[in-house]
Amino acid sequence: MKKIKLLMVIPSLEGGGAERVMLNIINHLDRDRFEVHLYVEKFEGKYVSDLQSDVQVICAEHRRGLARILFLRNQIRRLKPSIVFIMMLPIAAIATRLAGVRAIPVIRETESKPMAEVQQNWIPRILNRLGMRMAHRLVAPAEGAKQYLQERYGMAAKKIAVIHNPVNITSIQAEAAEPVTLEENVVHLIAVGRLKYQKGFDLLLDALGEVSRFTWRLRILGDGPLEAELKQRAKDRGIGSQVEFLGFQQHPYPLLGNSDLFILSSRWEGLPNVVLEAMAAGVAVLATRCPTGPEEIITPGENGALCSISVEGLREQIETLGCSRALRDTLVEGGHRRIRDFDLPHIVNRYQRFFYELIEE
After folding, report:
1. CATH for 4-166+343-360 (3.40.50.2000, 2.70.98.10, 1.10.8.1000, 3.30.465.10)
2. DSSP assignments along 9-54, one per residue
3. Over the stretch 208-245, which tens digit does the pLDDT of each residue have?
4. What number of CA atoms fall less than 13 Å from residue 207's CA on the CB side?
5. How far apart, in whole angstroms, are the C-alpha atoms of residue 348 and residue 164?
């Protein structure tokens, strides 16, 4: 059987949920059926060392603007891939069309509220929309995200496939079982994500400033532009000594597995990987009802808890869960059952079938 040549496109392998999804797909595709190439604008980031050595990497390096688009176009002409699978870089679909070869551009939209929508510059907005319209198919990580893409870009439902994010359950559970020494008689809270407005850490800190029914500690794993502001906010709320900012952690699972409650305070998501990873690690999960993802993953009271995107909503649920070890244990058990639907081999196989369907079309 002739291998299908894939060109996977992403800006970099910096540490984030989308990059982890791309890495999991690339590393676990069947090499007897697929020849895998990777295009990045910068071959750098915290996940570079995790990339399989047989993946052929193309890097735009110092190129900018139009030169970068033309470089990618030329690489597509040279490689003649069957499919160009794009994540976080919709202009790659433009380059694919400009290449004039029989390559199928497919975009996986990673957020229900695309970056172009929150950017103020009109140029990224136009390029984002043009790239999305030039894609042959879109992939959404959740049903809510699919609906959003239909409404925003006028795409027919049949053009959008929903494929959930893969989770390497076996690997996560092995790492989560590693012992971590934490203070006793304290409810250990943990949050993970880029320190930016989307993730709602300001709401979380404000909520914790009002929690006094039990002793708690919060560890925030991640870096980003709001780090100094958030540290100051914790001090202003009188909880500076109870909050630790630990920066980006490539392997957060031992801390996740030894914590009592994971909290996602996001204002929006696509399908939050970290919720799935927390379930796999064996920690109770609380998430906001943000668009999109949490409500598709979590059945409240069975495998997690949900709350409004607000200080009050977070405070109420943190106090409820923090005061009940039995409730947290119930959610952990339910999470273990739910996470099986997102197991890495199952999701990668779904992607492989999807790629074959594209070729048949």
Report:
1. 3.40.50.2000
2. E-S---SSHHHHHHHHHHHHS-TTTEEEEEEESSS-STTGGGS-TT
3. 999 999 999 999 999 999 999 999 999 999 999 999 99
4. 26
5. 10
